[in-house]
């Protein structure tokens, strides 16, 4: 796509493309993208860290169900999340008295809602394995709970916090569906601007310029995040998960209250989806759910395929994409988590780590369109291949797998590997006896994360999915974009089905992950 934008008639001509950077509208788009993503990231961390503490360190009822529930927003198509917030914030909605409809605050709230799971999962897989004896020793020496948090806990969690913050920022900066639905014509980000330039105006030169600028900013952000993580990463002492859990105390009241607020914040838009899906005219019923099979009168005109077929398509694509993302992600995480012996080797690993994070900051529109114009000729003509969508979704999920596993692998004391090697253990046995017991549970968490991302991925899939084989997010978008209360109701019903499937899957993954805790 960049090549087609910067090369004209076989020659390099960047002047026409770079002209877009001088437009006043572009300046407004860049500024709004920067400050809205920053504010949303800070708010997400403020809500996510106390929630992570409660769900991963305290023995509270319903902990596993709450973990799966927090992930539900992350799997919903961003367009659906935007519609849910519009339903809440319109003047006639439950929260209409706040007068937030069509404001930047609504966009930021939707970003926080969507990305809260990233902080909880990324930080949680490391936090639940930390040995609590350091915190207990600091408290026994007279440190207050705040001092323990500031001097012991946060330094140990810093790599995971920085990793999750960088992911959240990138997701906020590329929140295509949210901004498109909630921002209207008043607010736009680089993501939506690239989309408009590509699909509405066919201005590939301007889209290429913004894509290059986006890549440069993402690269700089990833480098800064890498430097910060490298300065704070160190080996940590670990303990069995069950030994790290403790009952809530009076000193945990602030964290528990914030966690309850975060769960209520997540539940409110989801409740709006459920209530809207059950609303039929002036009454209540399951008509919208019955129409999803494509056999109700008038429903076949709106549905591309029955929802059961779309869900089956999403399932098959997600399994393939998750398998590819996990294989590649594990290899990349093992490689980039190693500490280079020379300065050049360390720089090479840092560059490699950043390269595999780039899909998080690239416009999904750019990614999907790029696949179409790149893999369109032999020997890799995949335009009609069913492999194209899983490949694109695997590239979207790959950075999440790497970011989930890398902090855990880097926290392993290298002396443990050296001791095993000195005793004659082969590299495979070192991996099996030293790394695998630590990584096993985060590995299951990363698998569930990748599967959830694949189920809900919309941006690139909307370009690549074949009309006769749509995924659930594509089907939901088709319903949302069509006029009529029945189509809107079916879109909400399909969103509830997709969210329910995801919660069940993540609940099973969570139970399996906790059930295998004692096996190692």
UniProtKB/TrEMBL annotation:
Every ABC transmembrane type-1 domain range: 30-223, 311-509
Recorded GO CC terms: plasma membrane
Protein name: Iron ABC transporter permease
InterPro entries membership: MetI-like, MetI-like_sf
Cross-referenced SUPFAM superfamilies: MetI-like
Membrane topology type: Multi-pass membrane protein
Protein family per UniProt: Belongs to the binding-protein-dependent transport system permease family.
